[in-house]
Amino acid sequence: MRTHPSLMLCLWTLAAALACRAPAADADCFRIRDGIPNSQHFFANDRVGNQYLFFIGNTVLAGTGLKDPGLRYSAQMVKGFKKHFPQAGMNETRHIQPGGSWFGLYRCSRGQPVFGEVICSGHLAILDFAAEDRNADLTRTRAALEGLLRQITLYRATHSRILVYTLTPELLAEYRAGRTPAYISLCEQLADHYGVPSLNLAQYAARKIIAGDITAEAFSADGINPTDAGAALYAEAVAAFTEALLTAFPVPDKPTAYKLPAPLFPETDDNGRIVAYEDPQVVRTGAWKPGQTSPVAPFRHVLVSDQPGAALTFRFKGSEIGLIDVAAADGADLSYAVDGAAPQLLAAPKGAAAPAMRPVSLAAGLDRQAEHTLVLKVASPGVARIGGLLLNGTSEDAYARLSPLERIDAVYATLEPLRYTPPAGRFTHLPKTLATLREGGTLRLVLLGDSIMGNTSSSSFELLLMRRYPKCTIVKIPSLRSSTGCKYYREENRVQEYVLRHNPDLLVIGGISNGGDAEAVRSVVRQVRAQKPDTEVLLLTPVFGALRDEHIRTFTREIDTTTSNFRFNLQRVAAEESCAFFDMTGPWWQYIQESGLCYGWFMGDAVHANARGCQLIGRLLETWFTE
């Protein structure tokens, strides 16, 4: 028997009202809509213990002004999720940014290289832009917010989304006047269109203030960031919301891809992205220094010039073009022109303000189907520090028509050539591998390790080796698990699943996740050879990772043989187990130190290599394997 839709609506409304009243919250402080069933699935089936929830918003997320940071609404929301899924590991990542939903459209693009971050790496996005959007034009906001919602789904179709509205003085004034704020109405219209749950903390807090349960001053000293008493009010509504959210739908057996409807607003464009300044389509003239250390996070590196007249030219299609740079007291003024229009000035801040990330729109409302040209110039003495360009549209991929080998050659061509002489005798324990490379045949090569070994795979070094040894065909098999080393692989006969079932001729073990335990590596080697004794093995010392990691923090060019350290211990294991050994750490970090470029220039995020870093790995391996 099927329940009539109107009856279901009544039942849902009653359930929501009861849930909201449980902690004395208003019945209409939230809307569940399509819920977050995909996230419920991921919570219920957590096997990693590291579920990332990405909150994007303003200083309310940071708990600014709170004596008890645990009262942050983000922490309270995680608490509500944990109530239903206590076994799931949940980490909230809080991204506090200027520019509101407009900049969120760019920062949440489908992977971008300027910050070296992919915000949408979790499965649940909680978006709160009310404070930063408070003075923005609503037409601009609706296009940006809709584009942002769409981009999250375009990045990964199983991502869940939640809209949150926190209180601002403007929203409180509207509620005092008995009106629903236009911003809230707009957000709710989008939430309805996309089936996104919403939590109106602003409405809940405003009603408490209007009813006299708390004064506006007691709720917040600045009208935006709540006090502990204000945050406790937010927590009431959050508890009701999460309870209703997680009981509205059963946990599905598998996640379902969301299907995007047509945009609600015709001006919406979901092609927002940050174009890195080093993109081949960004043409530099004059004196520029790429790969320089940024004075502010989260830039990994910046492009620097102190020469007036130095210029960048960029051709694109799209509705908007902007800039993200470092605004600092020693900064240079910039001038910009789009499609040959009269240049306009973008002034550097005056006074002693601390350096800050500055996202700014240069031209909007452009014909998104037409070709456009931006010319950006250093217009005064001072230092220009460019992070990238904000593009709502598309630009040509300079590598699109290249083969995989041509593409990695093009990336490597942007680096200084590698100067490294590998040690003699390195093939002593790889006689069959060397014979296959020289004489021909198929070499089954298994890469075992973590995401850094994923970077090794992404270098496509096997293409370089097959060019060096054209008679040989290399079948590369990445057998990887994020943040995982041999301490994991040695247990429960996992070598069968991760190594032996791939029937390797050559096993390469590396990465940064072995926990300094060379004996765990020895255990894996012995287990593999106990079942397949003819397997040859190459052990690699770590590359990339965070600056705090031992192989960087205590770096020496040559292996330190006076103390117990992973490089030395791994070298000993290799000798005792008749494995080949490549101390990649030494030449890798020496190259970076001598490059004149900051570490971030080679990084895709705080830990992993970008395309340039991958080519450094690949060319080291090519050189090591070349006779």
Summarize the model shown.
The chain has 627 residues and is of the alpha/beta class.
Question: What features would you describe in this structure?
Answer:
There is one protein chain. With 627 residues, the protein is an alpha/beta fold. It folds into three domains: 5-247, 3-Layer(aba) Sandwich (Rossmann fold), CATH 3.40.50.1110; 272-394, Galactose-binding domain-like (Jelly Rolls, Sandwich), CATH 2.60.120; 404-625, 3-Layer(aba) Sandwich (Rossmann fold). The strands form three sheets. Strands 7, 8, 9, 10, 11, 12, 13, 14, 15 and 16 form a ten-stranded antiparallel sheet that branches. Strands 1-6-5-4-2-3 form a six-stranded mixed sheet, sandwiched between helices. α1 (5-21) packs antiparallel against α10 (228-247) and α17 (518-531) packs parallel to α19.
The CATH superfamily of the largest domain turns out to be: SGNH hydrolase
Query: Can you identify the CATH class of the largest domain?
Result: Alpha Beta
Percent of residues in helices:
25-40%
Biggest pleated-sheet summary:
10 strands, antiparallel
What is the tally of beta strands? 21
Overall number of domains? 3
Judging by the overall fold, what is the CATH architecture of the largest domain?
A: 3-Layer(aba) Sandwich
Mean pLDDT over the residues: 91
**How much strand content do the residues show?**
15-25%
Helix/strand structural class:
alpha/beta
Shape: globular
The number of distinct helices, counting runs of at least 4 residues, comes to: 21
